[in-house]
Structures are given as C-alpha cells and as structure tokens.
Amino acid sequence: MGMILLCTVTVVYCLLGKRLSRTILTAPMVFMALGVGSHQAGLFAGENTEEALHVVAELALILLLFLDAARIDLTALRQSHVWPLRMLVLGLPLAWILGTAAIALILPGWPLVFAALAAAILTPTDAALGQAVVSNPAVPERPRRALTVESGLNDGLALPLILALASIGASMIRPDPGTWLWFGAQQVLLGPLAGAAVGWAGGKALIYAKDRDLTGPAYEGVGAIALAGGAYVLAGAIGGNGFIAAFAGGLAFGHRVKRRCPFIYEFTENEGQMLAWGAFLLLGIDAIPEAMAHLGWAEFAAIMASLLITRPVAIWLSLIRTDATPLTRVFFGWFGPRGLATALFAFTAVPQIDGIWGEEILYLALNAVWISVLLHGITAAPGARLYARLIAARGAEAELQPIRGSAVPLPTRQGHAPPHP
Q1: pTM of the model
Q2: Angle at 262 between CA 255 and CA 335, to 5 degrees
C-alpha cells in the first residue's frame, strides 16, 4: 500500500509540477510530509527504511557534491562574483562562529565542542530547497547566480570543519584521543588528495576522448557518475573521507573540462531531483518523527536563531562594502535553507560520538531540516516575487547589472540558462 501511494503522489506531483513551482508547495515539503504520514500510518512497517535512507542519502550527497562542484568555474568565481565569494570566505565562518555562540548561550549544558559541531552542521545551505528562488526568471540574474554558486560550494567547504570537530568530540569521550585526532586528520587531508587526483585524471581522459570523437553525451553522464563514486571509494580505501573526495573531485573535474560535459549541468534538475525527493521521503519515514519527539523549546530556539539571526547577520556583515543593497543582503540571509547536507553531515559525524551527545546533535540537525523545509518552502515563491518587484521598482541597481564570465549555469524551470562566455 505504501509503494502504491508513493507512486501515485509522485505521478500527480510531476503532472502538476510546473504549476506547483509557483506556489508555496515544494517537492521537499510534499515528500517529507508523505514520509512522516506514512510512518504514522505504518505503511512502511517492516521495511528496512533505515538502511535505504543511508544508501539513498549517501548516494545523493556524493553525486550532488561532485556535480555541484564540477559546475563551478573557479576562474570566473574569482574574477566576476564578489557576492558569493564574500559569502563563502567571510559569511560561512561568521555563520559558524555566531551559531556556536548562539547554541552555547541557548543550550548552556552543551560542551563547547559539541555546540561548535552542531553549528557547523547547521551552516551549509541546500540549493534544492531554493529552486523556487533561483529558477524564477523574475528575480534578477545576478542575485540568482550568487545564491546558486554559494549553495553549490558551502556544503563541501563546511565538511572538513565538521569532521575535525567530530574527531575532537570523539577524543573527549573515548579513550586514546590521539587515535581519533589522527583519524580526523587522515579524513580531512587524504580525502581531497584522492578526489582531486580522480577528478583531474577523469577530466583529462574525457577531453582526450571528446577531441577524438570517441564518446558522446550519453556515455559522458555515466562516466561522470562513475568518477564521483570512484573518488568516494578511493578516499575510503586510503583512510580519507569520501564526501570531501567527491567535492574535491568535482572541482578538479569541472576545472579540467571547462563546461564541455553537459551532463553535469543537467543532472541536478533531472535525475538528481529524483534522488533528492527519495532522500526527503526516507527522512520523513525513518528519522524525522523520532527527532520531532525530542524537540524541546530550547532546541527550537537554537534552530530559529540559526535561521533568523546567525546566517542573516553573517551574510549582512560579509557583504559590507559591496554594491549589494540592504534588500539583497536580507534576501540572501533568509534564503539559506538547510536540507540534505545538514541531515547527511549529522549522520556522518554522529557515529564518531557515542552516547547522548551524538543523539542530541542528530536530533537538532534533523529538526532544523524539517523546520527549514517548511519555512523556506512557504516563503520561497512569494518571497522571490516580492523581492523581484521591489528591485524592479528601485530602477538600475547593481542587482540588475548584466553578468560577465558566469561561474555557474543558471537553473530555470525549463532547464539551464546558457552560461555566459
């Protein structure tokens, strides 16, 4: 019965997808709610949903880390994208520092290292939850590209910090702290090396094959997925972290192929959507209900501080002395939803930390995800329309300037806008 309902909801949503994209009802909201409802009704009782959740979510995160990073033109990012560069270089660490202070203040019983770890897990944003914003052509192109670039990179940049803090936390509550610190160092150092090697070699091989007409788009996509998996597996084999390797591999691959692999721009709006929807469904079935049962007022306050204070303030400060208007700073500060990366990073970090603190961090992260899915989903479409009207009414602002040397192709509801030369 559960599978019949799932298939029916998926078909109906896809049939109405274009219309629903202009409403407050988003795909993550639909599939997460379907999962929670199915859990309450016992529709998937007896199914091994926990194992399925870890498989689907890990696969989604590996591919999206690799492909989001591969889409970024690093040269154009340095030269033409002051806003996302500032948000990544200044806003990301500021959000973590402010988030750590907020959690330590609101949850005074938490050790500082675990407050810092929770803040780091709550820092990355999820582009999938902001599709109604970044795919809305009424919103000027420059702000949309800034949000797309930031969300494509901040999860991979936050992961080394998360792993390092998890190792420090594990060393505090388990014997032999040197072992855990060495483990964390291997994860953070060997992962990027393995990923960069796989990505660079794979990109070089792809260009070689394309130049000699040995391959085509249908095969390139399969090869890109295999490279992401290869980076993950190689890193694990040598003691590195596979997720960091997937991110580093994507950066190296994208820098090498220079937009000559269309698949990496199309996947996140096609096959990647299916993976993300499946992950949100399984979160709703297996993880969110238990987390909701452990949500207290103090934890709720910490989550709301992350959504309403720490990121908005960090983004505002990071864009000081740029040409971004106050309206755009507020817009960027709010539209930083927490999604799959937050949930998966919590699942990755928690096994290193036995006992109550691991569970507390996991529950906090999972509750932040469903609250963000709800709040950002409800506000995405109307907020984007309001922002577009206000910017248009102001006239020739910096937000309306044309883009030169785009760092990433822009998603639309019909596909990707072509990258600027």
Answers
A1: 0.86
A2: 75
